[in-house]
Amino acid sequence: MIFSFIEHHRARWPVKLMCSAFDVSTSGFYAWLSRPESDQERLRAAILEEPLPFQAAPPCGATTGRTADPPGGQASQTRSQERLSV
Q1: Is the pTM higher than 0.70?
Q2: DSSP 8-state secondary structure symbol assigned to residue 36
Q3: Max Cα–Cα distance, the chain, nearest Å
Q4: pLDDT tens digit sequence for 8-54
Q5: How far is CA 76 from CA 4, 8, 45, in A?
Q6: Spatial distance between the Cα atoms of 5 and 13, rounded to a whole number of angstroms
Q7: Where along the chain do its domains lie?
Q8: How does DSSP assign 65-83, residue by residue?
Q9: In the chain, which ranges are continuous DSSP H helix?
């Protein structure tokens, strides 16, 4: 995970500086770069590419299901004023 962070940010910061900050060796980073992608990494990438069910767009005309005003909304202010006037 540290090496992937370094790879992602190496255009912005020097590799040697990041390796020193994370207390890893630069040779370890470059060795990691040269290794083929593992089965676990391929599986993780495949999972991240699939959209989750709740990320799908709602059908046309769908609502959030809320029917009441949120607390402190216009309706609750009106009810509060009605209670005071009684």
Answers
A1: no
A2: P
A3: 79
A4: 999 999 999 999 999 999 999 999 999 988 898 888 888 888 776 76
A5: 51, 50, 48
A6: 11
A7: 1-49
A8: ---SPPTTSHHHHHHHHHH
A9: 2-9, 15-21, 26-34, 39-49, 74-85
